[in-house]
Fold this protein.
Amino acid sequence: MLPAALVSLALSIGPGPLHAPVPPATAYPLSPPPVVDAAAWKAWSVTANAEIGSLNADRQRPLASLTKLLTAILVVENASLLDSSTISATAAAAPLGYIGQPAIRRGEVWLVGQLLEMMMVQSSNDASVALAEHISGSVGAFVQLMNQRAAEIGMNDSRFRNPNGLDAVGHYSSANDIIRLGLEALKHPEVLAVVRVRQVSFAIGGRQVKITATNRDLGVYPEFLGLRTGDTLMAGQTLLAYVEAPRGDILAVVLGSTDRRKASRALLAWASQALGPRDYLLAPATQSAAGDTLPDWYHTRLEAALAPLPTGDPTPGRASPLTDALDARINELMPGVLGGGR
């Protein structure tokens, strides 16, 4: 990459004159995070394994049906999608998410894979309960499994009280934790397959059940591949989105919105422009005094660009006698790179 190569060249030649032109960073577009309709949000570069930007990301909030992503992970980890499951009275009595939503019925026999599609495609609360009972025997036992698995994932700001995300006291998460949940979901091909389904139908007990995805951006937003929507009175609208962008894969979550699609689209458009030439060019500034001239919000993005890819060597590098000279050279170069004087 040219900008990174130029910076490396500048550092390698020491305090002497720079023999290669340094393009001003102002030649590349730069914009702050958009102001979006969300109480909390976070954008994460899956490729760089680093944060791009966030707002109130550690604030605990209701998460609505984003809960079902953890339920789905536990299903594919603990059951076969070809297992049969008989619907209990408890599962059949679970509240529907919206008027006219297809329901499962007591005594019907469904495949686990079909219930998983019901839950993830049309956000079925009753299918969530049926799956919880199939895995653990009861909703209470499954909730214990949920909290145990969440702790293993590192979701330390989260607590679950049910498998579907219906409003309940003590049922909450944070934008930070939901990104962790999304990263865990990306490890499960069965989950990734079902979150991309736009429409599916089942023949169950002599009736035809047809469902359509609650995630309206599937097939609409370029490179949009799921993951999960949510909407309750306490949580507002929520959305965890996953896209494969040209500059790397991105996860973005919005919580407490009244227009999750608009908020997510704005964040994804902004995040997909991150980690470009300007970011990599200016990344060394975060480790020098020149970084003080950059906006606070931009430091997070630069730190993401600076994040090294895993090398397999756990031993950190040690400072060399050239460290001070390199820092001085960065400070000397930054005014020109920024496109002006100090």
Summary: Residues 279 and 313 are 25 Å apart (CA to CA). The longest helix spans residues 323-338. The chain has a mean pLDDT of 81.
